[in-house]
Amino acid sequence: xxxxxxxxxxxxxxxxxxxxxxxxxxxxxxxxxxxxxxxxxxxxxxxxxxxxxxxxxxxxxxxxxxxxxxxxxxxxxxxxxxxxxxxxxxxxxxxxxxxxxxxxxxxxxxxxxxxxxxxxxxxxxxxxxxxxxxxxxxxxxxxxxxxxxxxxxxxxxxxxxxxxxxxxxxxxxxxxxxxxxxxxxxxxxxxxxxxxxxxxxxxxxxxxxxxxxxxxxxxxxxxxxxxxxxxxxxxxxxxxxxxxxxxxxxxxxxxxxxxxxxxxxxxxxxxxxxxxxxxxxxxxxxxxxx
Length: 290
Known about the structure:
Blueprint: E1 2-5, E2 16-19, H1 27-40, E3 46-52, H2 55-59, H3 70-79, E4 84-89, H4 92-95, H5 99-110, E5 114-118, E6 122-123, E7 129-130, H6 131-137, E8 143-147, E9 151-152, E10 155-156, H7 159-167, H8 171-178, E11 182-189, H9 194-198, E12 203-207, E13 217-225, E14 228-237, E15 240-245, E16 256-266, H10 274-289
Parallel strand pairs: 1-4, 2-3, 2-5, 3-4, 5-8
Antiparallel strand pairs: 6-7, 9-10, 11-12, 11-16, 12-15, 13-14, 13-16, 14-15
Helix pairs in contact: 7-8
């Protein structure tokens, strides 16, 4: 998959592209991507047209957390068979682009044959443009396909809804909408060694500060290490992440590890002594291996 940053590249010409932010690449996003691939067939390249940094982090700098980091997003899109990602450089000047100027810029820089958007897509200064206006403004330049909102029994499938579920600790429901387990990728760093003293050694993870972490608690997780899937217990509290990996013995220091979250087992508790803590951890592990 080719990554193109804010520059003209003939690789994108006559392609079929999805346009949007795609945070999380959930089931509704996947429907848009499926539409792109169906239209492209084997004759045309497929692409994602998006923005870097994400618009919300430029327009609302405080307290912004994402379901997928840039690296995670690129890995998922590559697995989905996308040929390229085109990043527009998003800054305050770009944010002031009127809808017609944005469409002209998109055409001049990417020259797609078809652009696919979701029904709720908005663009241009103060989100003045919508999917219908995009179709009108693109006439004579490229065609626009609009994918209707994707619903389930609980309502609209959206990144906002997934964030809310994660912050409540409702992991299975969030995973259902994502179409996969919610994951956290981080580098293994040195910890205090408390887990080893208790007989449950852990790895400590440092993650992107803009990555959304679920509600504090103890979680059942799984990890892939050297093509082997391991179960684990993740302890998440005050933005500190520790994972005890079941039936694993090795040194992962400084390695990048991805943790897939299955379910929340319990809240974080304060224990009066180490023996009580050890019993609680043993109980967590017994639930995981059942």
